[in-house]
């Protein structure tokens, strides 16, 4: 840490915006990262819904000048329980509604970023234009907003792989950026999906104890290393993930699939 603090002293401290997905398994490690950056002299704006921020452990007092918690209230969505702001507040079948509400934060976040980018050239701390935005997943609407203000997003090329439970929404987000997968399925169809993705060589599943389904940290670390390695296995996974990206991002191809579906339905009449 001493070297990092020394490096910060020689250069201008950063202003980083951190915006994790609405799950405590995402928010807690991102808050820890935020505090570690703040200890190195950087300003961090941590964004989430109000109740989530209230339920996270308090930021240490000595970091208050450099860690700002920014609440963005979620819009109401039909079917989403009142006050639900995280995956802990909803059953699995309603997580998609939480994602709909999350997408409703695009406009409020754009307003925040526009204001944050209005600081003058000599501004510091939270008055400084954000240098980076750290995004988690499901933020498909965020890169265009950041691009308008020339703020860099730590997503696509800066990320080497995506650790996922292999829910379909997570997979689509990962492939939109062309990331290979480190897969840790939890329940329902996720295990089958993980095997299908492994068969297509776009990711590797973390090994588990077949007796009780448990896994060890060393196995997670080993799988991450294999996926991100420069060897032939890692290169193959990355190449196949980019091929998936080309398919998903090909608007003409997507339109062609819908046309084929419509034609197939007509033939079945």
Structure, explained:
The protein is α/β, with parallel strands linked by helices and 269 residues long. The chain folds into two domains: 2-158, Rossmann fold (3-Layer(aba) Sandwich), CATH 3.40.50; 162-252, Rossmann fold. Helices cover 46% and strands 12% of the residues. It has helices at residues 2-10, 24-39, 50-55, 95-103, 106-116, 142-148, 168-176, 190-199, 217-228, 232-248, 251-267, and strands at residues 15-19, 43-48, 67-71, 132-135, 152-154, 162-164, 181-183, 203-205. Helix 2 (24-39) links the parallel strand 1 (15-19) and strand 2. The chain is globular and about 60 Å long. The model is unreliable at 1-10 (pLDDT under 50). This is Anthocyanidin 3-O-glucosyltransferase. InterPro entries: UDP-glycosyltransf_plant, UDP_glucos_trans.
Q: How many beta-strand runs?
A: 8
- CATH C-level of the largest domain: Alpha Beta
Helix content: 40-55%
Structural class: alpha/beta
Query: Could you give the order of strands across the largest sheet?
Result: 3-2-1-4-5
N- to C-terminal distance: 68 Å
Beta fraction: 5-15%
Order of helices and strands: HEHEHEHHEHEEHEHEHHH
């Amino acid at each position: 840490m001493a070297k990092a603090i020394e490096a910060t002293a020689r250069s201008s401290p950063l202003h980083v915006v951190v915006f994790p997905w609405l799950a405590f398994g995402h928010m807690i490690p991102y808050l820890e990262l935020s505090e570690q950056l703040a200890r190195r002299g950087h300003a961090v704006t941590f964004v989430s819904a109000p109740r989530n921020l209230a339920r996270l452990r308090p930021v240490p007092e000595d970091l208050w000048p450099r860690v700002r918690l920014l609440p963005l209230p979620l819009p109401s969505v039909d079917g989403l329980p009142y006050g639900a702001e995280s995956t802990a507040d909803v059953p699995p079948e309603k997580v998609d509604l939480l994602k709909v509400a999350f997408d409703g934060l695009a406009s409020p976040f754009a307003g925040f970023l526009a204001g944050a980018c209005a600081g003058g050239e000599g501004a510091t701390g939270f008055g400084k234009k954000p240098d980076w935005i750290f995004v988690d997943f499901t933020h498909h609407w965020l890169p265009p907003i950041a691009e308008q203000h020339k703020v860099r997003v730590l997503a696509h090329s800066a990320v080497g792989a995506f650790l996922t439970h292999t829910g379909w929404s997570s997979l689509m987000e990962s492939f939109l950026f062309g990331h290979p997968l480190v897969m840790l399925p939890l329940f329902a169809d996720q295990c089958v999906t993980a095997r299908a993705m492994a068969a297509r060589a776009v990711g590797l599943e973390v090994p588990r104890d077949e007796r009780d389904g448990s896994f060890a940290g060393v196995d997670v670390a080993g799988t991450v290393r294999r996926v991100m390695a420069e060897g032939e296995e890692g290169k193959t996974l990355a190449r196949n993930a980019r091929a998936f990206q080309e398919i998903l991002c090909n608007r003409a191809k997507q339109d062609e699939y819908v046309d084929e579906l419509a034609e197939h339905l007509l033939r079945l009449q």
